From TrEMBL:
PROSITE patterns (alphabetical): OSBP
Entry similarity comment: Belongs to the OSBP family.
InterPro entries: OSBP_sf, Oxysterol-bd, Oxysterol-bd_CS
The organism's taxonomic lineage, starting at the top: Eukaryota, Fungi, Dikarya, Ascomycota, Pezizomycotina
Protein name: Oxysterol-binding protein
UniProt cross-references to Pfam families, sorted A to Z: Oxysterol_BP
GO molecular function: sterol binding
A cellular component annotation (GO) from this entry: membrane
Segments of skewed composition (Acidic residues): 558-569
Annotated spans, Disordered: 1-48, 441-569
BP-aspect Gene Ontology terms: lipid transport
Ranges of Polar residues composition bias in the record: 441-462, 470-502
Transmembrane segments: none
Species of the source: Cochliobolus carbonum (strain 26-R-13) (Maize leaf spot fungus)
Extent of Basic and acidic residues compositional bias: 29-47, 541-555
Amino acid sequence: MPHLPGVSKHRRTSLTSASYPGHRFRGSSIDETRRHDGGEDVTKEDETIIDPEQGNMLTHIISQLRPGADLSRVTLPTFILEPRSMLERITNFMAHPETLLPITKIEDPVQRFVAVTKFYLSGWHIKPPGVKKPLNPILGEIFTGYWDYSDGTKGYYIAEQTSHHPPKSSYFFMAPEHHIRIDGTLKPRSKFLGNSAASMMEGIAILRLLNTGERFFVTQPNMYARGILFGTMKYELGDHAYIRCPETGLSADLEFKTKGYFSGTYNAIGGFIKDANGKNLFELSGQWNEEMYIKDLTTGKKELLFDAAHTKHTPPSARPLEEQDERESQRLWHEVTEAVKRRDQDVATDAKARIEDRQRQEAAKRNSEGVDWHPQLFRRVRGGHGGSEEGEEDLDWIINAKIDGKTPEEVVKQILQIHAILPGQKPDKQFNIPSRTSSIHRTQTNESTQHVQQVPTEQVQPAQPAEIAQHQQQSVGSPSNFDGTTAHATPPIHSSNSTDPSNPQPPPTEKPASQPDPVSSENPPKFADELPPSKLLHSNPAKEAHKDDLLRRTDSQTLEEEEFHDAQS
């Protein structure tokens, strides 16, 4: 998950143990602790060695900002970088398969929800030493990865940067043999708060259990870097996050507690799991980077939920660099990450600047040619009343593929047709970044399509089989078996005041005009407009109004300075 940059002159932290694409974590991020003068345990990964010159540079940058300022276009030096892209960093969410894979085998819906809560809390401890920010994905950047599970099955992950201003990182995960799918979009929003920097983590993830038909809507806590100008620098998670299952009415309100000036402790959590009527069933407590506990409020029994301090996580594997396309994260940022690893800040800065300058040049060229950009692997969510993803509007973008195989083998084949994921896998065809009509020509509705100019060949993107553009997104509103039959969903735990949206309806059988046609020399790609930014999902989100004026964004908005999103830091 993203981390914010911090500033402190003569401050001790460690840059020596950061995570690199070629040297991923193999153990817990909580390895050693030291004790402050006040007797408080603080983990070494919360400290960084910043020499006086670096401290002066950071202090100079931050001190010019006013409280409340937007940090999204602030350029920070490379010595505070985590050497991997945000698209790869999101995989922390799936890095504890021992908490994820057993969920679909649990018969009781309440205990299933408890297991989902455990899975959700298990990934927050994974972070590099110090207060670091991952690399900002460039527009159209892609990362794919996979997990080899102990039972011989695999998990598959695909992510793409679907927007740059505002930043949106969309991702898809699936473990077909375990009937698990995750769709998500991360939409950070940054603020400068004087002696702190805040990342307001908008966006949602939806965990789908395909054998029960349940969906679990998940939000994230906000992130803070304290003491960036004076005092002790500290990274904290804060505020509330929510888990909600509309099919059962169960919900969780999780509070990530920030430390007060005179009381409290770092990294504390608290919260409750509630039934459909709002009655508290379980109480949660502990620290998200150490031990977390759950108490059954019916029996009074308290037990360990998850021990982050002594649990190894499992990062994903990725294809070798020589098999990756030039806009895939690890290949794209390879020179930068290697320089950061060597602490060669001059090389890292130059390499990073070349990538970002190229992105600005591409945006300027598209704008001058009247060509608007569209994600390659994701499509707009079909929300609103009667839409196939009604109630899921906050995703904004969802994987542009029909995944409806009757067996796990067929599902795996469909996933691998979206983009190369496994070593040695060769996609069928290649094509450039999909283009859209210029905003000056967009006078029709969102569902209309027009002939558009092709992006120049130097903007070639990672390969995708052309036939994937024909597929529609699978609806997961009701459980289904791999043989094509419909399973019986777990009966909802009814609530008299429930306002959760109903299950999404099956997608239309005919291809909408807004969906891209197969790409060929005779049939160039066509796309519709982009959705407006969505709002943070609350426990029961209201449907977002359709605003035509917000749909008419062109690439001219991407020409401004676009380096750092503190939410991705």
